[in-house]
Amino acid sequence: MVNSEEFIPEAIVEIRKAVGGHRAIIALSGGVDSSVCAALAYQALGENLYPVYVDTGLMRKGETEKIQQAFHYMPLTIVDAKERFVNALKGVSDPEEKRKITGELFIRVFEEEAKLKRVDFLVQGTIYPDIIESEGQIKSHHNVGGLPSEVAFSGVVEPLKYLYKDEVREIARALGLPPQISERMPFPGPGLAVRIIGEVTEEKLHIVREANEIVEQEILRCKPWQTFAALIEKGTGVKGDVRVHGWIIAVRAVQSRDGMTADVLELSYDVLRKIASRIASEIPDVARVVYDITPKPPATIEFE
Ligand code: XMP
Question: Which of 35, 141, 195, 254 to mutate to test the pocket of ligand 1 (most atoms within 8 A of CB)?
Answer without folding.
Answer: 141
